[in-house]
Design a protein that fits this description.
Elements (H helix, E strand, L loop, with lengths): L1 E5 L6 E5 L5 E5 L2 H6 L2 E6 L3 E5 L4 E4 L7 E5 L7 E3 L6 E5 L11 E5 L4 H4 L9
Parallel strand pairs: 3-10
Antiparallel strand pairs: 1-2, 2-5, 3-4, 4-9, 6-7, 7-8, 8-9
Length: 125
């Protein structure tokens, strides 16, 4: 099913192909906990940025592999390129216009990322 989403001010808009009954992760690492990010990792081909590329700002830290994109106008992070799946896109479910039906939220121990990252690597395939 295709879901539309975007940032708070509407400058950034995207659509994403969401699998039936998607499993999403609620991560307890500092950046996810502070921003309220709820993770839906998809293959890059399942994500389409419709507008707002010029409004996006990039933030990286630690290894620099993850590419955290924020709207430079409203500050919301609707998606990013995750370190666990650099060939995919991680969409913030809270930025979708409609919550996917049958969504299951599972906890993810991002505080101990190195020990658990391998459990996510299949999501962008």
């Amino acid at each position: 099913m295709i879901h539309a989403g975007g940032c708070h001010c509407g400058a950034v808009r995207f659509e994403v192909d969401v699998p039936d009954s998607p499993e999403v992760e609620d991560c307890n690492c500092a950046i996810c906990r502070m921003s309220g990010f709820l993770h839906l990792i998809v293959p890059a081909a399942s994500f389409r940025l419709l507008q707002g590329e010029a409004a996006l700002s990039l933030y990286t830290f630690n290894t620099g592999v993850a590419k955290h994109y924020f709207c430079s106008i409203c500050g919301i992070k609707p998606f990013y390129i995750p370190r666990s799946n650099p060939d995919g896109v991680d969409v913030n479910v809270r930025c979708l216009d409609k919550t996917p039906e049958g969504m299951r939220i599972t906890p993810f121990d991002g505080r101990n990322w190195e020990a658990h990252a391998h459990t996510l690597m299949h999501k962008s395939k």
